[in-house]
Design goal:
419 residues; mainly alpha; 80% helix
Length: 419
């Protein structure tokens, strides 16, 4: 049950992103954004008052609904509030704020839990969200659709939601295929997650091809190569980054012997670099072109991954910090123009869908990275968990494959624009 407390928010927010993105496009981004903040605020306050695990799980799910509404609508509201010539800058500032939360969140969260207790973490987050809600009420009529569609694609949504849920759960249980098969229900179900998810996704795309009001316009993936390549680059970058940092947190404590608070400080170097560089990357992309900055950022990230792929038991901590800073600089340079390029590749009436697609790539990419780490740890002889030295080295090297996909798709993005 405790594992589902964390997983429930991730799965619920991931499966609802595309349906809510389409809903926002056909109605109003502002209305759904305000509704998301309201649900997010209320859910956190009820999590603070939780008296049992089922009660806490219920409102973590509600929080996931609110989070999906926010993720699907925030970027479209920002990009339509400013001219296209400033889109990179606006997105860069937004991502800088996100990086600051990644930087400050663990520190403040640890302080709150140590001195006040875990309940107050939900209370403080809920109060911050409620304060944001009060300031955002005026946005409720923002980005209303000029010609709202009469019918929503409920059938497509009902196929898509279980497909993505099973995909994420299947990726997190990928190591089940390496375990001995005994024929019990506990052995069969994890092995069915991915096959059923793939069948549902195929059914979804076949069905959506013949729908005028599809929740995910298939032409975005079949004819809009710029959108497809930017999405794939984001998936690969998020997957590789999550995988490396996940494994590195164990390696720093188990192999390098760092205490948890110093491990956190080392890993904070990446979001610090992202926070500082994201706005400047946005400005550069507005001036010289998004595709050029994306390619530069992906190459810098690759350099950081290569440095980490070369670590060994006697690697000094300063080397890890340099590698993390290199990754952070690359991610900070890459992400703003990547988001700007993706949002600029679609018409305004599909901005919510594009934003939701980007957020979905982040969630699925991170799930892919986690599954890869768990699978490698299971396959390597003599290891039984992800906190082993040898599995960490292997995952570091395998993550280079994901990073290579990011570089190649970024390169093809550049060629596609030149066409």
């Amino acid at each position: 049950m405790t594992g589902w407390i964390a997983l429930s928010y991730i799965v619920v927010s991931a499966v609802l992103l595309i349906p809510f993105g389409k809903m926002a496009d056909r109605r109003s981004h502002g209305t759904l954004f305000v509704l998301g903040l309201l649900l997010f605020s209320i859910a956190n306050l009820f999590c603070f008052m939780a008296h049992s695990l089922p009660f806490l799980l219920t409102f973590r799910i509600v929080k996931g609904v609110g989070g999906a509404l926010i993720y699907a609508t925030a970027i479209p509201i920002l990009t339509r509030a400013y001219p296209d010539s400033q889109r990179g800058l606006v997105i860069g500032i937004n991502l800088s704020a996100v990086s600051f939360s990644l930087l400050a969140g663990p520190l403040l969260g640890g302080f709150i839990i140590n001195y006040l207790g875990w309940r107050y973490l939900f209370l403080i987050v809920g109060l911050i969200a409620f304060g944001t809600l009060l300031g955002a009420v005026g946005l409720r009529n923002t980005n209303r659709a000029e010609t709202p569609q009469k019918h929503y694609d409920y059938i497509g949504a009902f196929i898509y939601i279980p497909a993505i849920a099973l995909l994420i759960l299947g990726l997190t249980r990928l190591s089940a295929y390496t375990e001995p098969f005994s024929g019990t229900v506990q052995d069969i179900l994890p092995r069915l997650l991915l096959p059923v998810a793939i069948i549902l996704l195929i059914l979804f795309f076949v069905y959506e091809r013949h729908r005028d009001n599809a929740i995910l316009a298939t032409d975005l993936l079949t004819y809009n190569r710029r959108f497809l390549l930017a999405s794939l680059a984001a998936w690969a970058a998020y997957g590789a980054d999550f995988t490396v940092n996940y494994m590195l947190s164990f390696w720093l404590q188990r192999s390098a012997g760092l205490p948890s608070h110093l491990t956190g400080l080392v890993l904070m170097s990446q979001p610090l670099a992202m926070m500082l560089l994201s706005p400047f990357a946005g400005i550069w992309s507005d001036k010289i072109g998004e595709h050029k900055v994306v390619l530069i950022g992906s190459f810098i990230m690759m350099c950081g991954f290569i440095l980490l792929a070369l670590i060994h038991e006697h690697t000094p901590i300063w080397y890890i910090v340099v590698a993390e800073l290199c990754m952070g600089c690359g991610f900070g340079v890459f992400l703003s123009p990547n988001v700007s390029m993706l949002m600029g590749s679609v018409s305004k009436d599909k901005a919510g869908t594009a934003s939701a697609m980007l957020a979905s790539m982040r969630q699925i990419g991170q799930s892919t990275g986690l599954s890869m780490a768990m699978l490698v740890a299971t396959l390597i002889p003599g290891t039984s968990s992800v906190d082993t030295t040898h599995s960490t080295y292997t995952v570091m090297r395998i993550s280079l494959v994901l990073m290579l996909i990011c570089v190649i798709t970024s390169l093809f993005c550049r060629k596609e624009i030149h066409k």
